[in-house]
């Protein structure tokens, strides 16, 4: 086994042990969209060591990515009810919106300063596509084939985007910053997520610039869709479906 293959095997094992988003009972992790199978086999890039500081931006960003992918895998589970799948889709869009906004507020400025301005600008441009797809989904009827197709398109774009982040951007950032700086970015990233909009706003170039009134309106919409208090950002699918179990 070559070093690259061994690294991927190690990372897969660590993810199973430290999963942010566990697979639901009865769902085979090997099943699902081919895109996700390909994503698991990506041969290059940053592989977090087993002792990676969980408070570092190097751990937090990939963990967010894994959580969103986990929500999509559960969303594709045919044994869930349509209402359960709708709640999972809503939470996926909320997680994605908050994650993108936090990246624009914390990660990308750090990349622009320490690595390369163009890399940061390119990532923001890719977010524009994710926001457009997310906004489209918010205006579509859940369960229609058009909705399913748009969700698939969103996730394909997301996978391409995070491949660049995990395999180019984060390794480049690690080369330029000290561990203490990476931990500080992680702290600021998590703090930023507490105040970010939970909806896509494609009309705003940097979602982190959305005003407080818009954030409150997003929260009100979330409460209405989840019939009360929505799951916290970062919740596993079991928490998203807590009232459906």
From TrEMBL:
Residues 8-18 have a biased composition (Basic and acidic residues). This is Hemerythrin-like domain-containing protein. It comes from Tetradesmus obliquus (Green alga). Residues 28-41 have a biased composition (Acidic residues). Residues 60-173 form the Hemerythrin-like domain. Pfam families: Hemerythrin. InterPro entries: Hemerythrin-like (IPR012312). PANTHER family: HHE DOMAIN PROTEIN (AFU_ORTHOLOGUE AFUA_4G00730). It comes from the Eukaryota. Residues 1-56, 221-245 are annotated as: Disordered.
């Amino acid at each position: 086994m070559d070093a690259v293959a061994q690294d991927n095997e190690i990372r897969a094992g660590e993810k199973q042990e430290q999963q942010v988003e566990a697979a639901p009972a009865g769902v085979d992790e090997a099943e699902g969209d081919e895109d996700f199978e390909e994503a698991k086999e990506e041969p290059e890039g940053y592989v977090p060591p087993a002792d990676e500081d969980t408070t570092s931006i190097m751990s937090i960003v990939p963990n967010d990515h894994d959580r969103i992918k986990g929500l999509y895998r559960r969303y594709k589970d045919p044994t869930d009810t349509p209402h359960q799948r709708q709640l999972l889709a809503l939470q996926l869009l909320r997680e994605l919106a908050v994650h993108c906004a936090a990246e624009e507020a914390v990660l990308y400025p750090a990349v622009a300063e320490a690595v390369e301005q163009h890399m940061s600008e390119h990532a923001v441009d890719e977010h524009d596509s994710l926001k457009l797809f997310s906004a489209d989904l918010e205006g579509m009827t859940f369960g229609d084939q058009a909705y399913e197709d748009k969700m698939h398109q969103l996730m394909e774009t997301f996978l391409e985007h995070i491949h660049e982040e995990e395999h180019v951007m984060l390794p480049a950032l690690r080369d330029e910053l000290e561990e203490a700086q990476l931990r500080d970015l992680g702290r600021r990233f998590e703090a930023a997520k507490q105040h970010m909009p939970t909806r896509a706003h494609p009309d705003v170039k940097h979602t982190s610039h959305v005003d407080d009134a818009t954030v409150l309106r997003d929260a009100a919409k979330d409460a209405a869709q989840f019939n009360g208090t929505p799951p916290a950002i970062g919740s596993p699918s079991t928490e998203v479906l807590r009232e459906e179990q």
